[in-house]
Design goal:
Two copies of one chain form a homodimer. Chain A has two domains: 2-133, Jelly Rolls, CATH 2.60.120.10; 145-190. A four-stranded antiparallel sheet of chain A has the order 1-8-3-6. Chain A has a four-stranded antiparallel sheet with strand order 2-7-4-5. The model of chain A has no long low-confidence stretch (mean pLDDT 95). By secondary structure, chain A is an alpha+beta fold. In chain A, 50% of the residues lie in helices and 22% in strands. The N and C termini of chain A lie far apart (46 Å). The first copy, chain A, contains nine helices and eight strands. At the A-B interface, strand 5, helix 3 and helix 5 of A face strand 5, helix 3 and helix 5 of B. Chain A binds a DNA duplex through residues 146-148, 166-168, 176-183, 185-186.
Chain lengths: 190, 190
DNA sequence: CGGATCGTTGATCAACTTCAACGGTCGTGG
DNA sequence: CCACGACCGTTGAAGTTGATCAACGATCCG
């Protein structure tokens, strides 16, 4: 997939031959809307890279409501990092939001990839560094902003977010109820 | 410092000679209580590794109150990852909570280190992966638990936390007011 | 010993949730 | 291709959680 090559080029330099080899470690996969890739309680065997489409990670809270904690769109990785690293049962589920094309790799294969192409160690270091940096800022936002401000922030910062994602998932991701989101939208409209 | 070698050994294999070389890229630094290492608005030049003691990261919210978002104790790294990676002004401050001994490295030196010791690329990949994994779980807790549950969780999970850290910093870190923490503690006492 | 900082208590207030009910729309089977 | 059911967004009333403000006591440190 060229889109993955373009993505890699942002972080490391890799020639076409090596790139082909790197790519051979991944499985490409098509998923339709609302397809499960990982279900809470299963061992988290793989990491997923979104070529196009959108995935989400969620858990079910004590009230039985799905709580979305993360979205992954084009050029983002998603997995339960903690459970993946240790190959243990996951506390999260991962599901497609839209019809999507993704790359899949499991831990064992990733280790082989890293052994054969040490430059990928650098790539993943940078990816995790970037992911951690966004977590840092996300946590800051959660501390700093009211729910209303969070909504305004995300809808101006990530307009695709509001357009592509159904409203009840947006509310869930931002940490409040669909009803309250309705109220905010009504208020902003007037 | 042997404590850093012990820490490295958990992630990579490195002989004594290479370790000496690796160590030479870091600066060792003693800081007393409440000393600033980074002040909001300054360029974030360094990463800090805590050999012993405790550092914290915080920002000042619109009400002028310091909001602590992260603590680092023994064997943890701390920096504003986003600002460090880009060598731009930071939105956070970093300060010691106690008298501490730390290792310091700046971006340029880190790049030299990574070039000379590619195995450190793997080390930092694993460190960031682990850091991201804790963020994932932390965000989940923030979504899942009430403030009271958060306090109970952290005080049972991380007892050192309650003992070493003053109460107003605990409240700040958990995202509520010192007054409310008092109330929770009173309730739990009875 | 004295001042500043920290923890506590209680009253009032704002943000957000919960629950119930309704209308619109989307997609699926007949 | 239409009709029906399920799901989604909206509205409003009542209820909770946690914030704010002010005042006081304790403790720590110079």
């Amino acid at each position: 997939m060229d889109t993955f090559k373009t993505h890699l080029d942002k972080f490391i330099t890799i020639n076409d031959e090596d790139y082909s080899s790197v790519l051979s470690f991944f499985q490409i996969m098509e998923v339709k809307k609302k397809q499960n890739l990982l279900v809470e309680g299963e061992v988290c065997k793989s990491m997923y890279f979104v070529l196009n489409g959108c995935l989400r990670k969620f858990f079910v809270n004590e009230k039985g409501v799905e709580q979305t904690t993360e979205f992954a769109i084009e050029n983002w990785w998603i997995t339960d990092t903690f459970a993946f690293e240790r190959q243990i049962k996951s506390d999260f589920s991962i599901q497609s939001v839209e019809r999507s094309t993704i790359l899949v790799i499991d831990l064992e294969t990733q280790e082989l990839l890293l052994k054969k192409h040490p430059v990928m160690e650098r790539y993943f270091r940078m990816i995790y560094q970037r992911a951690y940096a966004s977590s840092e800022r996300r946590i800051r936002y959660l501390y700093e902003m009211s729910r209303e401000e969070l909504y305004i922030h995300f809808s101006t910062q990530y307009p695709w977010f509001i357009q592509r994602i159904p409203q009840y998932l947006i509310a869930s991701f931002l940490g409040f109820t669909p009803e309250y989101l309705s109220e905010i939208r009504a208020k902003l409209r007037s």
